[in-house]
Amino acid sequence: MIRVFLVDDHPIVRQGLRTLIESDPGLSVVGEAGDLDTARTRLAALKPDVAVVDLKLGDESGLDLIQHCRGLTPPPGCVVLTMHREESTFDAALTLGAGGYVLKENASDDVLMAVRAVASGGFFLSNSLREFLQRRQANGSAKPKPSRLSSLTPTERRVLRLIGANRTTKEIAHELCVSPRTVDSHRANICERLGLRGAQALLRFALENRAEL
Question: How far apart are CA 133 and CA 179, in angstroms?
Fold first, then answer.
């Protein structure tokens, strides 16, 4: 059972999310909050697997809560649920540790998949955001230097391509017929070769440069 915590300042939104999430027999909502202070207290006490976080909580920012979650033991995975499409907000959420980014307009289709992906150590983005990243890459803002990708081995490029396809470590290990520990080793080597820091930076690079892989 995947334990989920909801953070949104609108009670009716939280109720809708609870109903949607608990329609999946493998998911359970263990708590909720409408502001940062309550969320911090309840997250520490309940220790959920995944927190679904709105980025606008009245005058407060859900980005602060995502950063806070990194310091919890164990840290819950964070799925952003927001109306914001801004590039700067998206980049900030991934940099701070969000494992999923779902637009509210896609919530009914994407929330369950995002929660499951993040709970298993993977990542999830709404399809419309994938299109946004592809446009950004096409415009040249994310185009990698050839020397960076050429430093990767064929296996590392394949791992990076699978990361960009939202595959979890277990799924990548199964496809490559290796252990999850070997996949983690490939991830670390890719980050070192490309000068990337952390899983979110690796994901963003993989998504933005899928056409080059």
Answer: 30
Q: How many structural domains comprise the chain? A: 2
HEC-encoded secondary structure of the chain: CEEEEEECCCHHHHHHHHHHHCCCCCEEEEEEECCHHHHHHHHHHHCCCEEEECCEECCEEHHHHHHHHCCCCCCCEEEEEECCCCHHHHHHHHHHCCCEEEEHHHHHHHHHHHHHHHHCCCCEECHHHHHHHHHHHHCCCCCCCHHHHHCCCHHHHHHHHHHHCCCCHHHHHHHHCCCHHHHHHHHHHHHHHHCCCCHHHHHHHHHHCHHHC
pLDDT band with cut points at 50, 70 and 90 for residue 201: confident
pLDDT value for 138: 62
pTM over 0.70: yes
Is the residue at 138 inside a domain?
A: no
The per-residue pLDDT for 8 is 96
Q: Supply the CATH number for residue 177's domain.
A: 1.10.10.10
**CATH number for 23:** 3.40.50.2300
